[in-house]
Amino acid sequence: MTAYTAPEFYKKAFNCPHCGAFSHMEWQSKEPSVYYQAICAHCKQYSFWRVTETKLTGLELRRKGEILYPDFGSAPLPAEDMPEDVKKDYEEAARIFIKSPRGAAALLRLGLQKLCIHLGEKGKNINDDIRSLVEKGAFSGRVVQVADTLRITGNNAVHPGQIVDEDFDKVAGKMFDLINFIVKKAITEPKELDELYQLMPENARNAAEAQDKRNLQNQVQNPSSSPTQK
């Protein structure tokens, strides 16, 4: 998964909530005790912040703050190939994450359930859907672990007690990356591979598909024999 650095008050660089690029931030303020803006060196747009705490530590004055604009600044941008109904839940989760990590986690679990439906599942039981996608080859290895992490964290948001609060907050903050990862592996990469395959000469593709069909028929008729290779 691509590393993502969430926006943080007075941090020198993070992923811009507007353009998504990891970029240097120039902090400016006309009211240092109340408001700041961080200007992205990449897209030149700004995020607006409010000081929430001021503390004197030794000779150093330290401040904490929260982002006010844009209101989805705590999450990476949704994956380009994310289905629209899933993206709607994703963006709502991003808007509320700072105020309600559990609410965001529950929305992202719902987004995962909708994503499973988009991939051809029934959507009635998310655990069954994940296992079915494994059997079909749509999910494998790391993708299954990511999907289960999303499912379990989302469940814990509604039924607390299975994960301690400190661990929950840490995992919930990564759920945006996790669902983007699933979209990339289950939708984007297969689409890109199919586009490359379609660039091959048609007669070569037809021959390869005919050979694959014969191999599959041989496996069904003779399950103990190896597929014919040429």
Verbal overview:
This protein is α+β, with helices and mostly antiparallel strands. The chain is 48% helix and 18% strand. It contains seven helices and five strands, in the order βββββααααααα. The protein has helices spanning 84-96, 101-118, 126-136, 142-158, 165-172, 175-198, 202-221; strands at residues 13-15, 22-31, 35-40, 46-57, 60-69. It has a five-stranded antiparallel sheet with strand order 1-2-3-4-5, with no helix packed on it. It is elongated. The mean pLDDT is 84.
Topology (elements, then pairings):
Layout: E1 13-15, E2 22-31, E3 35-40, E4 46-57, E5 60-69, H1 84-96, H2 101-118, H3 126-136, H4 142-158, H5 165-172, H6 175-198, H7 202-221
Antiparallel strand pairs: 1-2, 2-3, 3-4, 4-5
Percent helix, as a range, is 40-55%
What percent strand? 15-25%
Catalogue the unreliable spans.
none
Could you tell me the mean pLDDT?
A: 84
Order of helices and strands: EEEEEHHHHHHH
The profile of the biggest β sheet is: 5 strands, antiparallel
The oligomeric state is single chain
Q: Give the strand order of the largest sheet, numbering strands 1, 2, ... along the chain.
A: 1-2-3-4-5
Gap between N and C termini? 37 Å
SS summary, helix count: 7
Return Rg in Å: 23 Å
| Structural classification | alpha+beta
What would the principal axes of the Cα set say about the shape?
elongated
Q: Give the tally of β-strands.
A: 5
